[in-house]
Amino acid sequence: MSVRNVLIVGGGFTGLTTAIALAQRDVQVTLIDKAPAWARVGHGLTIQGNALRVFREIGVIDEVLAKGQVENSVMLYHADGRVMAELPTPRTGGDDLPATIGALRPDLHEILLRRAEELGVRIRLGLELTSFENHADSATSVLSDGTTETWDVIVIAEGIKSQTRPKLGITEDRQPTGLGIWRAVTSRLPEMTGGMAFPPDDTGAYKVGYTPVSDDQCYIYVLCPPERPDNGLADWQEVRRLMANYHGELDYLRESLGPDTFLNFQEIEWIFVEGPWHSGRVVALGEVVHAVPPLIAQGAAQCLEDAVVFAEHLTQDGDFEHLLTRFHSRRIPRIKGVVDASLLLAKWELHPGTPDADPGRVMAESLVALEAAP
Ligand SMILES: Cc1cc2nc3c(=O)[nH]c(=O)nc-3n(C[C@H](O)[C@H](O)[C@H](O)COP(=O)(O)OP(=O)(O)OC[C@H]3O[C@@H](n4cnc5c(N)ncnc54)[C@H](O)[C@@H]3O)c2cc1C
């Protein structure tokens, strides 16, 4: 089919990467986001090799690697600080890319934004999609400023809390995982290379980990129950409390937290839409249709893969329904593997001592399965 103009709703990793991948194929792209301005602060992320492969394909790999800290293995610790194991991380992007990097979300967003602008993507902030209407081979959008325009395709990349999802006939909604998470960006010593620590038995605590994001900074995550207790503690004190039984490098990290630390808490939800992701010419991508607990750090990677595989299909010759069906059939088994593994790991996190639980094996197997191109 010949696609000339596309509207993308949402400027997170999914929307921006889709915009870039389409613009690289000479499609005119307009991207809107409801945010009145881009947030310049945010947390760290672990970016796996298969996400780096997408960054290479869209022409930003050098900038991304320059902002990230490479990690090719993960250290596992007991809560008391003793090393449990060092596991090599599968190179899901191929041998010529690092296994993973740690980076700050706003740095990556900034890189994608620059690339989208360089390719002529028109970006408009403070706007939402109010409604849409499908026609035989186009779709019309009505935006929150009252303007109406017709497009070959509209992409919904609004994230897990998407308001448009039910309007596409998708009945699945986001669901609780039973877990919450605290994240903090803080300082680290040069010799601290990242890892995760498992809770002491019978304390009811969950996993804690950290990933370097620069020469002297890292982000910490602390898994916990899904509700923030009303215990009178400030956020930084609450995270220190949750980390109290962890030692070794985590002693240093815990003590580094204070009133000025950038911290946030959120409940972890998930969604997986196995059925069609589109209605007529309006297509949902990324976390609108698949979001997982971040236990193998594949959420953003799967969103990025959606973007490039979608652009590849959308710009081929052929019938739209047929191309979209092929795109969908190519993505579902791969994403299902990530969803199943992530939910199983979340279940084991919630039920320590489950017989036969083997998180290391499940993580490794699910990542090895991603080594093939998406
Ligand atoms: C705690 C946590 C840790 C994570 N860690 C990792 C990790 O280490 N590695 C990894 O790969 N992934 C990780 N992820 C997953 C990753 O963050 C997400 O998969 C990814 O950010 C989703 O991108 P997205 O663009 O689909 O959605 P979002 O990032 O949610 O972007 C959606 C965008 O759409 C805009 N928007 C929403 N509604 C509208 C509307 N109605 N109109 C216009 N604009 C709208 C929003 O303003 C936003 O800019 C983590 C997720 C969580 C929750």
UniProtKB/TrEMBL annotation:
Domain of life from the UniProt record: Bacteria
Domain FAD-binding, chain residue ranges per copy: 5-341
Keyword Phosphoprotein: no
Keywords assigned by UniProt, alphabetized: Monooxygenase, Oxidoreductase
Pfam families the record matches: FAD_binding_3
Name the record gives this protein: FAD-dependent oxidoreductase
Taxonomy of the source species: Bacteria, Bacillati, Actinomycetota, Actinomycetes, Micrococcales
